[in-house]
Amino acid sequence: MHLLALATTIFLLICNGCASPISDSSLDKRQTTSKYCSAESNLCYLQISTTASNPVFRIAIPDGTSAPFEILLQIIAPVSNGWAGFAWGGGMIANPLTVAWPNGNKVTVSSRWSSGRTLPGTYSGATYKTLSSSKNSTHWMAEVVCTGCSKWSGGQLSTTGINTFAWALSRTAVQQPASASSSFSIHNNLGQFSTDLSSAKVSQSVFQQHIKSAATA
């Protein structure tokens, strides 16, 4: 079976305990990858984007490492997005899921895992340190450091080969924005893409300095 067809078969999105499979035709294939460099720091990210109505995801990792390693993740989403999620293993099932949503003028980031066709439960194997989060009239954003997103039971990210990732979003707000264990509704859009992490690599010193600077800001 073709890799994309297999992945989309298992990429099942959920509505409070009920799930339905999605077809290859429902995947958003418009995502593009590029290198984004911050003007405020010496840090560059691998950027994944689609359209203006969907989130932008940015990833940075320390160079010269193999899994497990920490990952910097930025999520920048239009305010029309009730939640946005990122799957580190390319599908919903059996890999770490990062799910974020606005909470007042801040953002809640939740670590999730799904073993089947159920709402993803909270996951203790990946932890997040929030470096910044905010919401204004047009967008909400968060930047976090994830420990546990690069390697998990049954899989890991490659720093030299191709990795498959996935993302999803909903236009509906979560039920309890202040709670990282809140339930959330079915997605309105999702996508899957494969890429290497060459554009995500930054030096160890720059990576750690960014985390340190954000923590003291």
CATH architecture: Sandwich
Please report the number of helical segments: 2
> What structural class do the secondary elements suggest?
mainly beta
Proportion of residues in helical segments:
under 10%
| H and E order | HEEEEEEEEEEEEEEEEEH
Outline type? globular
CATH fold assignment: Immunoglobulin-like
Overall pLDDT: 86
Structure characterization notes:
- With 217 residues, this protein is mainly β.
- The protein has one domain (32-212): Cellobiose dehydrogenase, cytochrome domain (Immunoglobulin-like).
- It has two helices and 17 strands.
- The chain has helices at residues 3-10, 204-216; strands at 13-15, 18-20, 32-37, 44-49, 56-62, 71-78, 83-87, 97-103, 106-113, 121-122, 127-135, 139-147, 151-152, 155-156, 163-170, 189-195, 201-202.
- The strands form four sheets. Strands 3, 4, 5, 6, 11, 12 and 17 form a seven-stranded mixed β-sheet that branches. Strands 10-9-8-7-15-16 form a six-stranded antiparallel β-sheet, with no helix packed on it.
- The radius of gyration is 16 Å and the shape is globular.
- The termini are far apart.
- The model is unreliable at 1-25 (pLDDT under 50).
